């Protein structure tokens, strides 16, 4: 009998298992994959996520795996350019984009070291419930016989196709349509650094140096372009770079060498799921998913994983009723993620910015101080009010010399 079973051992599940095991709870973490292994992912970890990794004692392992440090960001959206980097936070002055086979193995091993049992290549087929209360899981290790494990709480950290979420009937809410699709691969021969650029034709590309002296290159296009894209992936991929930044498109053709097959990602609609119920909880994409455009999936997995582990500990330790602790997890998760969710779903269609965001981002682009502040907001280390409070907006507009009749103070205006 376990205190907690965590289904999914990647960037949401392993931190939950690790943190609970460090608190002395008996934890089983299962995953259908074995490690190390890759997963479809944007790789990029924002400063807010890196601060958690450092707090958990794991950031040094990311660095030791020869993951390149990134100290400048080139961000552009339809002609507005923000080139700089967020101010250091507690000495953290770089970001990283590790491959998932590097990151996830570090996380899984950390869960093991903390005392969690980890069962790889185990596919969960069902949850076990008694009178409406989830009490365990059922599944198979490889082609082996069906096995059953029991626990006080089952956590679904098994992605947006979550088996746990489906089996418990976790309802969706605040659903917003998905805007696009992604193709990415890994290239040698390029020394571009970190770029995040959206063009005029509902197209975007991103570049991140990653492990093994490779750069991850990704493109996003609107759903309407998917059929055409699939018919000629190589040329359509290159065409996005040509369209958004012709100079970089030419460099890609002349200097870049693709080292792996293209990986597609047609992601589901943006959504929240109710993240708890009798004997179960959800974390990561299982409970909350947004468009990968802003690259916040892994960082939110760390933040919400710690939040969930803390509330589960309170319930397991008898500090408060479990239902009350998980209800607070639900409330805090939704409140803290609302800004990123709104920002992501506003920009993800890659269409013209709403007037408020266009005038404010254009004003920020005229000042290195405000550029770096905005990049800090994107990275989760600057609060919204530091930019969007009325007095802050007034200073921004004054610094950028925005005429009074062009100033907008209400995002809905």
TrEMBL record:
Presence of the UniProt keyword Oxidoreductase in the record: yes
InterPro entries the record matches: FAD-bd (IPR002938), FAD/NAD-bd_sf (IPR036188), Geranylgeranyl_reductase (IPR050407)
Keyword match Mitochondrion: no
Name of this chain's protein: FAD-binding monooxygenase
GO MF terms, alphabetically ordered: monooxygenase activity
Key words of the record: Monooxygenase, Oxidoreductase
Domain FAD-binding: 2-343
Domain of life: Bacteria
């Amino acid at each position: 009998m376990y205190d907690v079973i965590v289904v999914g051992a990647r960037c949401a599940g392993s931190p939950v298992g690790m943190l609970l095991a460090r608190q002395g709870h008996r934890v089983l973490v299962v995953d259908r994959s074995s490690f190390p292994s890759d997963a479809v992912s944007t790789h990029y970890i924002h400063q807010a996520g890196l601060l958690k990794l450092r707090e958990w004692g794991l950031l040094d392992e990311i660095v030791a795996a020869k993951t390149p440090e990134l100290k400048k960001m080139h961000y552009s959206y339809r002609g507005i350019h923000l080139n700089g980097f967020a101010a250091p936070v507690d000495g953290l002055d770089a970001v990283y984009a590790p491959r998932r086979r590097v990151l996830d193995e570090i996380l899984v091993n950390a869960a093991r070291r903390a005392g969690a049992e980890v069962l790889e290549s185990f596919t969960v087929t069902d949850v076990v419930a008694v009178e409406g209360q989830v009490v365990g899981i059922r599944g198979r290790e490889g082609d082996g016989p069906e096995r059953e494990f029991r626990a006080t709480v089952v956590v679904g950290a098994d992605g947006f196709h979550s088996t746990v979420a489906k089996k418990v009937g976790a309802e969706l809410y605040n659903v917003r349509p998905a805007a696009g699709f992604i193709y990415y691969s890994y290239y040698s021969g390029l020394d571009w650094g970190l770029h995040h650029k959206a063009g005029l034709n509902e197209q975007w590309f991103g570049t991140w140096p990653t492990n093994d002296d490779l750069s991850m290159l990704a493109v996003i296009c609107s759903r309407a372009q998917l059929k055409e894209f699939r018919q000629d992936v190589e040329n359509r991929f290159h065409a996005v770079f040509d369209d958004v930044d012709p100079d970089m498109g030419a460099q890609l053709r002349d200097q870049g060498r693709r080292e792996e097959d293209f990986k597609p990602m047609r992601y589901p609609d943006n959504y929240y799921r109710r993240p708890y119920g009798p004997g179960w909880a959800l974390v990561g994409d299982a409970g909350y998913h947004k468009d990968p455009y802003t690259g916040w999936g892994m960082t939110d997995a760390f933040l919400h994983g710690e939040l969930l582990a803390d509330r589960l500990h309170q319930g397991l330790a008898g500090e408060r009723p479990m239902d009350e602790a998980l209800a607070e997890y639900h409330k805090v998760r939704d409140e803290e993620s609302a800004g990123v969710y709104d920002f992501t779903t506003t920009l993800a269609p890659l269409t013209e910015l709403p007037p408020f965001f266009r005038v404010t981002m254009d004003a920020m682009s005229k000042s290195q101080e405000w550029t770096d502040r905005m990049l800090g907001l994107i990275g989760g280390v600057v609060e919204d009010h530091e930019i969007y409070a009325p007095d802050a907006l007034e200073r921004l507009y004054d610094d950028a010399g925005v005429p009074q009749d062009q100033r907008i103070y209400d995002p809905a205006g």
